[in-house]
Automatic annotation (TrEMBL):
This is ABC transporter permease. CDD domains: TM_PBP2. The chain crosses the membrane at residues 12-38, 75-95, 107-131, 137-157, 185-203, 238-263. Residues 69-257 form the ABC transmembrane type-1 domain. It comes from Bosea spartocytisi. Pfam families: BPD_transp_1. The lineage of its organism: Bacteria, Pseudomonadati, Pseudomonadota, Alphaproteobacteria, Hyphomicrobiales. It is a multi-pass membrane protein. One of its GO terms (cellular component) is plasma membrane.
C-alpha cells in the first residue's frame, strides 16, 4: 500500500470518527433525558432503578402543565403565521427586488437572530412598555417572530435563488399578470421551503425560553417557563417527562416534513 493511500484512509477514518463523536454529543443528552423519564424513583438519577409510565400520567393530569403546553402551542402557531405573512414577502424583496438596499435588508433581517435571546427579550419588553403593551401572549409571539424571522426568510431565499426566472417571464409572455404568475408558478415551487420554515419557526416558538421568559404574561406562562419553575423547585422525573414530550414533538415535526415534502427537497 502506498503512503498516500494510507494517509487518505487515515484521514477518512478520522473524519468519520469526528462525525460520530459529534453525533453522540448531540443525541446522548436527549436519550439520557428520555430514559430518566421512566424511572420509578421520585428523583432524577441515572441509570434508572425501574421502568414506569407514572410520570407521564402525572404530566397529563396536571392542569398547570397542560395549560402551559397549550399556551406554547398557541404561541408556536402565532409565530408561524407571523413569520409566513412577513417573512415570505421579505424573502421575495431580498431575492428578487431591484432596488437599493436589497442586500442591506437581507442583512438587517438576520440581526435579531444574531442577538442573544435574553437581550432581545429585554429590548422587546421595554419597547412594549413604551407603547403601553405589557407582557402577554401577543408580546411573546411578536418577540419570537422577530427573533426567528430570519429562519423563514433565509429558507425561502435559498429556494428562490435556485428557481429559474425564465419560468415567470414565460408566464408573463403568455398573458399572465404578476399575481397570476406568482400564484400559479412561484408559490407552488416555494411551498417546500415555506413548509420547512414553518415547522422550524413553530418549534422555536414552542420551546424558546431566552426570549419568552421576559415577554410572557402571568396567565400565559409557556411550557419552557413552567419547566424552569419545576426545575427550581423539584428534582422529580416529571421534568424529564416534560422534556421528553418536547423532544417527541420536535421529532414528529421533522418526520412530517420528511413524509410530505422530503428534507432533501427543501432547497432543491
Amino acid at each position: 500500500m502506498r503512503g498516500s493511500d494510507w494517509l487518505d484512509r487515515l484521514g477518512i477514518g478520522a473524519l468519520i470518527g469526528v462525525a460520530l463523536f459529534s453525533l453522540a454529543l448531540l443525541l446522548l443528552p436527549a436519550v439520557i433525558v428520555v430514559i430518566m423519564s421512566f424511572d420509578t424513583r421520585g428523583y432524577i438519577s441515572f441509570p434508572p432503578a425501574g421502568f414506569t409510565f407514572d410520570w407521564y400520567a402525572r404530566l397529563f393530569n396536571q392542569p398547570v402543565l397542560m395549560g402551559a403546553m397549550w399556551t406554547s402551542i398557541k404561541v408556536g402557531v402565532y409565530v408561524t403565521v407571523l413569520c409566513i405573512a412577513l417573512g415570505v414577502p421579505t424573502a421575495l424583496a431580498c431575492a428578487r427586488g431591484d432596488f437599493r438596499g436589497a442586500a442591506g435588508l437581507s442583512v438587517f433581517v438576520l440581526l435579531p437572530h444574531m442577538v442573544p435571546g435574553i437581550v432581545l427579550g429585554v429590548a422587546v419588553l421595554f419597547a412594549g412598555a413604551l407603547f403601553g403593551i405589557g407582557p402577554s401572549i401577543w408580546l411573546q409571539s411578536i418577540s419570537l417572530a422577530v427573533y426567528v424571522m430570519a429562519v423563514m426568510v433565509r429558507t425561502v431565499m435559498a429556494r428562490l435563488q435556485k428557481l429559474d426566472p425564465l419560468l415567470e417571464q414565460a408566464a408573463s409572455n403568455l398573458g399572465a399578470t404578476r399575481w397570476q404568475s406568482f400564484r400559479t408558478i412561484t408559490l407552488p415551487l416555494l411551498m417546500p421551503a415555506i413548509l420547512a420554515g414553518a415547522v422550524f419557526t413553530f418549534i422555536e416558538g414552542f420551546d424558546n425560553l431566552s426570549v419568552t421568559i421576559f415577554t410572557h404574561g402571568y396567565r400565559d406562562r409557556p411550557l419552557p417557563v413552567e419547566l424552569l419553575t419545576i426545575v427550581q423547585n423539584t428534582n422529580s422525573p416529571l421534568v424529564a417527562a416534560v422534556s421528553s414530550v418536547q423532544i417527541l414533538l420536535a421529532i414528529l415535526a421533522l418526520l412530517a416534513i420528511s413524509a410530505t415534502i422530503g428534507l432533501d427537497r427543501v432547497n432543491d
